């Protein structure tokens, strides 16, 4: 092998210096400029001694050469011999090229610096901020809810790190979320899976971290990689909340994230909500009200004055809050037995409009004893449910539905999806029938005999993009509502959609419940980012075991047509072993955004229930 020559070494050294950036290039230009000025000065002193007129020696000539190199326009005012003019022309011409290169280098260097600043690469100097890692449509729901939660806090900050342009993220957030109030949103461009980019978020001083499941193929692998990067970093580890698309990856995510990570199974949560909403009209609205920061929120409060009392007595223990359960050493229990004693270290779970409005009730509640009705609970009878369309979570939905219904219940699956009805062996209570059907075709829907069913579930078809699938769902809902109206049939309808913007369009169909799965998960992540202790509460609420939310006829609790206070309803439900949390007025059941549902109502307000109104309770099936 031949030896490296001096010329090759010099060129290698020169290439290395040139690759060091703008500063190195400017340094080379400075050296070239100095060489040019010295050459021009020497040539002037040699070829045109004594020129220009009035020059006081080599120093003055050096200054004149420098001015000609930096300001080529000075050549126009020069006077002297042909040799002097030729040398100055050469100096001005060389200076013209040098100045042009210098301006270009400075312009490019400034542009690169601005681009770097534009991407947001400085470390966040905040504390107590909420960090969001990743980007999906859920980010707008999360930021919007955190803005509401921090409305009364000054200096609240939400920091977002994603592989997107910083300015584009900020502009889209302003457009989709709107007024941010007192909350500042700071965006940084980077990869959440890279430890050097996570440093930008100042995680050691953060209040909590939310990891989003990105759109595209295999999103859970991306989430798990972020959890690994968070777990491996040194320093203080704030609580982390992450969403997974599939429950099959929960074990790997728990191992990657460690004990401080709370995981939300997106498919599981959405499936449970769809099933519960299909059987209890208004369930999705109730859950959305509990999950968002607009109205009633769930809080945990120390037992305080309720220490030593029973849960049944605690139901009347707060003036403007509604008790729904207890948190003890044994865990979370919603609507526990009425004789459960409250210990000094227990916490009471309540629904309130604000944590500052939770204070003990003064005196005994005003209960209208004659208005309380004693009625037997309706028996759990077999049901007929129609499932329209099919997707990846449909099997899970069917299995959850099997755990709710009475033996002998029937589920008809109508879809033209090639996988419709697959993998449904081992069901205990449901009998499955599968029919090939285009769910957007009016005649195909009429042939199903919808009047035979008590519940209809319309799923989003996963063979189509999200916006197209939502459009097909809207078409199906319009057909169902028109058939209901013309044929006078009565059955509940719950539909699944992707885009929150389609909710307003779907409201035209007057569907009983619309489940926007991405929005539900976003709301849940926002709640857990604020208070991870609520994870067990919402997990209990969405589970088929224990007490659940049920809307039941108001006539089964109180006399209709009489003005009473809500404490009377609470007492009537207590005697049945249930917890009343609100009511639904029939006249507003199709009026958004609450569809007639009132949670944690004003206990001093007098209300009169009609025959079609409902009381919303937590109860065992």
TrEMBL record:
Subcellular locations according to the entry: Endomembrane system
Main location: membrane
Leader sequence segment: none
Coiled coil: none
UniProt keyword Transmembrane, yes or no: yes
Membrane topology annotation: Multi-pass membrane protein
Alphabetized UniProt keyword annotations: Ion transport, Membrane, Transmembrane, Transmembrane helix, Transport
Descriptive protein name: Potassium transporter TrkA
Transmembrane segment boundaries: 21-48, 54-70, 82-106
Domain CASTOR/POLLUX/SYM8 ion channel conserved, first and last residues per copy: 268-361
Record keyword Transport present: yes
